[in-house]
Amino acid sequence: EAGVAQSPRYKIIEKRQSVAFWCNPISGHATLYWYQQILGQGPKLLIQFQNNGVVDDSQLPKDRFSAERLKGVDSTLKIQPAKLEDSAVYLCASSSAPDAGWEKLFFGSGTQLSVL
Amino acid sequence: AQKVTQAQTEISVVEKEDVTLDCVYETRDTTYYLFWYKQPPSGELVFLIRRNSFDEQNEISGRYSWNFQKSTSSFNFTITASQVVDSAVYFCALSEPPNDMRFGAGTRLTVKP
After folding, report:
1. Which of B76, B96, B110, B112 is the most exposed place for a label (fewest CB within 10 A)?
2. Could you tell me if B60 and B53 are in contact, meaning their C-beta atoms sit under 8 angstroms apart?
3. Do B105 and A104 touch (CB under 8 A)?
4. Pairing of strands A88-95, A31-37
């Protein structure tokens, strides 16, 4: 079974530039999450999708971050314009369950973003 | 609001030593779930175990064991006879239904040969 795929693996940009990350969840997983992991911290949820609908985006900085999950499969996360404090690893995770209550999450290897 | 505290930022042990990773949580809910994930250098978090708030039975899986104590709001993780391959960052997480999962800051474990 293929795991959660993410690309690119690394990205270096200058502040005020835009960047996009891509995620392909495990086949059949209806729920998809984007997490931000700042160095030395645990992952923080940015947005949760169930199929192509948003379940929770309360911690997404909507003035600069956007995400979509067209057709309920792949997802993209965009930052425009990027700030220095956006430097982090962006993790995508998926689950077969409609919520994160009990089901375990399957994570991708993440995209490491450096904003200079 | 829920909170997960992993007070140990870094732990270093020599191979074959036993090591315990501490996790203390705060929640007002009576129904909640606790998890441990491992993050090796490759980056992806790997699920290790989950427990619901009504199941305080401890669990052992090979060299891994988990001690859940509601009285002290703790869910500690012990690795017996540690190995170099156990080197990773370990995260404890608390989930309150329907979909609010919070991770601790993680404990970086280094096992030296």
Report:
1. B112
2. no
3. no
4. antiparallel
CB proximity A40 to B under 8 Å: yes
Encode pLDDT of A9-41 as tens digits: 999 999 999 999 999 999 999 899 999 999 989
From the list A41, A56, A102, the residue facing B33 with the nearest CB is A102
Which tens digits make up the pLDDT trace of B36-48? 999 998 888 999 9
Pairs across A and B, CB distance < 8 A: 67
For residues A68, A69, A71, A74, the Cα torsion angle rounded to the nearest 10 degrees is 130
Angstroms from A83 CA to nearest CA on chain B: 23
Strand intervals (E) in B27-73: 33-39, 46-52, 59-61, 64-69
Is some CB atom of chain A closer than 8 A to the CB atom of B101?
yes
- In residues, how long is chain A? 116
CA–CA dist B82, B109 (Å, integer): 10
What pLDDT, in 10s, does the model give residues A49-68?
Answer: 988 899 889 999 999 999 99
